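Input sequence (414 aa), recorded before submission:
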Amino acid sequence: MIELFNSKHYKLVLDAEKELVGDFNNLDELALINQYKVIKSMQAEYLSSTDFFSPTGYGYGDIGREKVEAIYRNIFHTEDALVRPSIASGTHAIYLSLKSILNYGDELIFASDLPYDTMQKATGIIGNEVGSLKERGVDIKIAPLDDKGKMQKDEIKKLISNKTKVVAIQRSTGYSLRNAFTTEEIEDIIKYVKSIDSNIIIFVDNCYGEFTSKREPSDAGADIVAGSLIKNPGGGIAISGGYIVGRKDLIEKCANELTAPGIGKEVGLSFNTTRLTLQGLFLAPHIVKEALKGAYLMQRVFSNLGFDTIPKIGDKRSDIVQTIIFKDPELLKKYAIAIQEAGAVDSKAIPTAWDMPGYEDQVIMASPSFIDGSSIELSADAPMREPYAAYFQGGLTYEQIKIAIIEVLDKLYP
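Predicted structure, token format:
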């Protein structure tokens, strides 16, 4: 027998796995529904192998680029889409969306409390970064969550004024200590805000949430939705990029901001990424299912060991992130190092907390990935602050995550 099966933690993981049969069956059904959606969206656009050719220069007449955006539009059931490798990250996609819509004197309300750390700097909630939304004259308000981590209608209503242009919702947990918001919870808030003022634009940060449910925030009434291609929809194959989907007039604003007014979506090279972007999208429902299965197993194992987790056993999931609260900086560091050592790439690298751009606290990150920084691949990161919680996500195959959990336990509890 190979070393894996001789691990004293092997049976512990198998026992946890046996408790998850029902959850895994539900995930199989979810992946089937989302896979069907993706295939039919590609067929509807008559996707052809010739679409993978990429022009040079300005990128005029890039049929593949246009097909990618049409396919995303179909999957998310929106009027238009902007999907480009030049969108550098999820933060870039979110910031691009918001700065394209908001003008001087407009008001932005975050209905889901403080956004992710990098967005706090991009918006100007903290710091004095050049080009932040605050520097551009946008007023920003924050609606706090209740003591159960849920959005509060009364708090949102208090903040809405005749200057309110956008209400933003962050679907995923980010570096907070709450569950990701379900599509149903997002839909409830959207309907409520629209009942107050139907002209308010609803923006949803969809990072980590794509294909984790049968419906996306755009199906729930969001006007504009954004995310990263090196997270869920890239399927571990897309090498870069981000997407924005939504109303046609809003996508036009985003395209004009990304390139230039009057040029918009008509230019911008895809840099020979079309095939990788679409192949990753094709695989994404299955890869997300594998990541979700791994998150369930990580949750079950560490809950059985007595750790607090978010989500807890029995909670409904709406992103791929599994939070484990260590309450000890040294144990958190050991966990990150163990995740790195369990990977296939850069397994000899040693994660160290450092001052990552866009973050207030030092961050430790394990990312033994084929695509640098890809968080649909096996990875974990954490801000070095109390309660010293690790945010685990991704894994291209369930088997990879299962092996990683065993090896992590061997490192933490030799």
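Checked by second reader. The first strand starts at residue 80 and ends at 84.
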